[in-house]
Amino acid sequence: MAVMRGLRCAVEGKIADTPNAELVVLAQAKSRVDQGVAHLAIAVVYPTYIRSVQFSRLPQELGSASLKFSVLTDADNATWHHGSVNEILAELRRAHDVIVRDDVLQQAVDTLNIGIAEVSSALLDSGATCDRLIKLLGIGTKGHAETAV
């Protein structure tokens, strides 16, 4: 688990020679997002040769390895990619931007809905105001304020 730009990110990995590695790691990563443990999850399938790399060389080998990965959010379908750690970071940034944009959009929609509800409530309480708006906007006919709103 790591924090990336304020969002929790889980990493789930399996070695390629693990039976059903892609399915298993994808299910684990999806579970982290579905349970709310993480906002983002990365499913990684490591190349088989990684098993035999000396621990002291592991960071260098992983840094240059071609990995199969999928970055998951609650909004995206899983798409598998191949690439290095840099490609994983690029996908994480893209997913982060989508999450943040969707969150900002949802906040704007919620604010707009509150404003519309307040205006609706005020208009429904005042038949005379509705009649003036109908005349001003040229919609409906006076006396039908209840059906015009």
Features:
alpha+beta; 5 helices; 51% helix
Overall structural class, as computed from helix and strand content, comes to alpha+beta
Strand content: 15-25%
| SSE ordering | EEHEHEEHHH
Largest sheet: 5 strands, mixed
Helix content: 40-55%
State the distance separating the first and last CA atoms.
Answer: 50 Å
Outline type: rod-shaped
| Poorly predicted tracts of residues | none
Quaternary structure state of the chains depicted: single chain
Mean pLDDT reading: 82
Measured on Cα atoms, how large is the radius of gyration? 26 Å
- For the largest beta sheet, what order do the strands appear in spatially? 1-2-3-4-5
**How many extended strands?**
5
- Helical element count? 5
Molecular structure report:
The chain is an alpha+beta fold and about 150 residues long. The chain contains 5 helices and 5 strands. The protein has a 5-stranded mixed sheet, with helices on both faces. A hairpin with an 8-residue loop joins strand 4 (about 65-70) and strand 5 (about 80-85). The radius of gyration is 26 Å and the shape is rod-shaped. About 15% of the residues are buried.
